[in-house]
Write a structure and sequence with these properties.
Elements lengths: L7 E4 L5 H12 L3 H6 L7 H18 L4 E6 L2 E9 L11 H11 L1 H17 L6 E8 L8 H15 L5 E6 L2 H8 L4 E8 L2 E9 L1
Parallel strand pairs: 4-5
Antiparallel strand pairs: 1-2, 2-3, 3-4, 5-7, 6-7
Helix pairs in contact: 1-3, 3-4, 4-5
Length: about 200
């Protein structure tokens, strides 16, 4: 797997669950989309967010979906989670996942999350594509090329991954659009979930 900086990329496994979930939690804690979905004003917001990343990572590894980690020496500083074209996650979740999320996050937050994922899946320009579900950099490594390195790894995986048409990603932060365009991602569609708007972007193979 290639890199664009001195950072090292490797696939993460279940043994990395704790540190990967912690990094995702830190990176997405103040994200407006997740704050809306999981109700940041609720005293259980952080508990719900931690539960999401714990359950998401568990499903990714259970179904052997790629989770890429960026390392500075032995320190995990970035994570990218990819759904493959034949992913069983596309637009939905399993009964056991739904039950766990209902118990930890509640019916409203779980419904919002599932609605978001279904809308994104339906808006993708191809059924035969990857979806970059989560892309996170450790807060103290922002601006140091971690995201660029992860995107290089994603593109490398796309090139090695057979006949997939490309990879899609939904972003809710305006500053991410220009950055992704610099990596050849194109704006596909504007979407809105829970009164938060964002942009679906796509990198064609």
């Amino acid at each position: 797997m290639t890199t664009t900086t001195s950072l090292r990329l490797q696939y993460l496994g279940a043994e990395d669950a704790g540190i990967a979930a912690s990094l995702l939690f830190q990176a997405y804690h103040d994200d407006a989309m997740f704050q809306r979905i999981f109700d940041a004003d609720n005293e259980n917001y952080e508990q719900r967010l931690r539960a999401l990343f714990r359950e998401e990572l568990d499903v990714f590894w259970q179904y052997h979906l790629p989770v890429i980690g960026a390392f500075d020496s032995d320190l995990l500083v970035g994570v990218a989670c990819l759904q493959t074209p034949d992913s069983p996650l596309a637009g939905g979740r399993f009964w056991n996942w739904r039950m766990k999320m209902l118990l930890s996050a509640g019916i409203v937050s779980t419904s919002r999350l599932l609605g978001k994922e279904q809308r994104i899946c339906q808006a993708l320009p191809s059924d035969n594509c990857y979806q970059l579900s989560l892309l996170a950099t450790a807060p103290n490594y922002q601006g140091h090329g971690v995201g660029d390195t992860l995107l290089a790894g994603v593109e490398s995986l796309l090139e090695e991954g057979g006949s997939a048409d490309g990879v899609g990603i939904f972003v809710s932060q305006q500053r991410s659009i220009q950055w992704l365009e610099n990596h050849r991602y194109q704006q596909i569609k504007q979407l809105e979930f829970a009164n938060i708007s964002g942009t679906l972007m796509f990198l064609h193979r």
